[in-house]
Amino acid sequence: MQVEHIAMYVNELEQARDFFVKYFNAVSNEGYHNKTTNFRSYFLSFEGGARIEIMNKPGMCDHKKELARTGYVHIAFSAGSKEAVDGLTERLKKDGFHVISGPRTTGDGYYESCIVGIEGNQIEITV
Fold it and tell me: What is the Cα–Cα distance from 79 to 46, expressed in whole angstroms?
């Protein structure tokens, strides 16, 4: 069995789509809009077949996102090399995103960095 996609609600749908396209080379579909409920979504596809569905609808609750919490905590993207991890991390930092850790080699041997990305969600960038 394989994961088909993950989904996340966002406040700013187009801004979230543009973030994943700009930094992680996502390819977006044309989007979906249910005019009855005003639900909107985009499917974002990544190299290798992974997909994220970003969604928005009226009346969502938006609690503060603590970095250390139960539930889904981060999404990880493979950049392909240490140099690519370093470069993307620096690019995100220069564009104002908070780097939580790294780039570094972790105790279990991963080379990674972690940032606070779009709407306070944690993203790991690894080889």
Answer: 12
Give the global pTM: 0.93
Kind plus residue range of the DSSP H or E element containing 125: strand 122-126
| Tens of pLDDT, residues 25-77 | 999 999 999 999 999 999 999 999 999 999 999 999 888 888 888 888 899 99
Rounded Cα distance, 40 and 22, in Å: 20
Domains and CATH numbers, the chain: 6-56 (3.10.180.10), 74-126 (3.10.180.10)
CA–CA separation, 27 vs 24, rounded Å? 9
DSSP string covering 70-92:
SS--EEEEE-SSHHHHHHHHHHH
